[in-house]
DNA sequence: CTGGAGATACTCT
DNA sequence: GAGTATCTCCAGG
C-alpha cells in the first residue's frame, strides 16, 4: 500500500544537520515551485552533498564570493548558481549559519504541473526526462538566480517550498561517486539516489572540456 | 541505441 | 582556463 505524501513543510531543523544525513533524507521529499501558471511539484530522486570548506568539489572551498554567499548563510535556503554560460542548478543549504555545506538537487519526478514544465523543456522526449539532471530540474521548475537565497522553509507566500513527502526507506537508497566533479572532490561517494528510479540521471565521470579550436 | 565532439558564453582563479 | 551541464549532430553497432 502506498502512503499519502505528507504535505507538511520540512522544519529548518531538518537542514541544520550534517550534510550527508540531510542528503539521504531528502530523497522522496517534495519541492513545490509556485508560478503564475500554478504549482509545480517535484519528488526528489537524486541529490549530491557538498561539504563546504572541507570539500575541494564545493563552490565554497575557496571561501565566500558574490556568487556563493547564500551557502554561508542559514540552513533551509536555496543556493542557485549559473554554470557553463547557459544553465542554472539549485542547492539546499545545510548546517548551521556560518558553515557552507549544501545539497545539489540532481533529479526528480514531476508529480504535479508537468504541463508547465514541458513548455520549458522542449527537448525532453518523455516526462521522465523533464527533471533528469540538475540543470534540467532547474529549468523544469523555472528556477534561476532570481530565486537565489529563497527560504524553502518559510511559511506562507513563497515561490519555493519543501514538504515532507514520503521519505525513501534506507534499503532503497543507493550512493556512489559524485557526477562530473573534478580533482580530489570526485572521490567522495556523496551522490544519493532512489534505487531503480527511471528519473535518475546517468552517471558521468568528470571529463575536462577540450580547448576550443 | 550508444557515445563522442563541438557549441554555449557566466563566474572565479 | 576550467567549471556541480546539456544540446544537436554524427559515426558506429
Automatic annotation (TrEMBL):
This is Putative 3-methyladenine DNA glycosylase. Residues 167-187 are annotated as: Disordered. Keywords: DNA damage, DNA repair, Glycosidase, Hydrolase. The keyword Mitochondrion does not apply. One of its GO terms (biological process) is base-excision repair. Coiled coil: none annotated. PANTHER family: DNA-3-METHYLADENINE GLYCOSYLASE. CDD domains: AAG. The keyword Nucleotide-binding does not apply. Gene3D superfamilies: Methylpurine-DNA glycosylase (MPG). GO terms for molecular function: alkylbase DNA N-glycosylase activity; DNA binding. It holds the Pfam family Pur_DNA_glyco. Belongs to the DNA glycosylase MPG family. Its EC number is 3.2.2.-. It comes from Streptomyces asoensis. HAMAP family: 3MGH (MF_00527).
Amino acid at each position: 500500500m502506498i502512503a499519502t505524501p505528507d504535505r507538511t513543510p520540512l522544519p529548518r531543523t531538518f537542514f541544520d544537520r550534517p550534510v550527508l544525513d540531510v542528503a539521504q533524507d531528502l530523497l522522496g521529499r517534495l519541492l513545490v515551485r509556485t508560478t503564475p501558471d500554478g504549482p509545480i511539484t517535484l519528488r526528489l530522486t537524486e541529490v549530491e552533498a557538498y561539504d563546504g570548506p572541507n570539500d575541494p568539489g564545493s563552490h565554497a572551498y575557496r571561501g565566500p564570493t558574490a556568487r556563493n554567499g547564500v551557502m554561508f548563510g542559514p540552513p533551509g535556503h536555496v543556493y542557485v548558481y549559473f554554470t557553463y554560460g547557459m544553465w542554472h542548478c539549485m542547492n539546499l543549504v545545510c548546517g548551521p549559519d556560518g558553515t557552507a555545506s549544501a545539497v545539489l538537487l540532481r533529479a526528480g519526478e514531476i508529480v504535479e504541473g508537468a504541463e508547465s514544465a514541458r513548455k520549458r523543456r522542449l527537448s525532453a522526449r518523455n516526462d521522465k526526462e523533464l527533471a533528469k539532471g540538475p540543470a534540467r530540474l532547474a529549468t523544469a521548475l523555472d528556477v534561476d538566480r532570481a530565486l537565489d537565497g529563497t527560504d524553502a522553509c518559510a511559511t506562507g507566500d513563497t515561490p519555493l517550498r519543501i514538504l515532507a513527502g514520503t521519505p525513501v526507506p534506507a534499503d532503497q537508497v543507493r550512493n556512489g561517486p559524485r557526477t562530473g566533479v573534478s580533482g580530489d572532490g570526485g572521490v567522495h561517494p556523496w551522490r544519493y539516489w532512489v534505487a531503480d528510479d527511471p528519473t535518475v540521471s546517468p552517471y558521468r565521470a568528470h571529463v575536462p572540456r577540450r580547448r576550443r579550436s
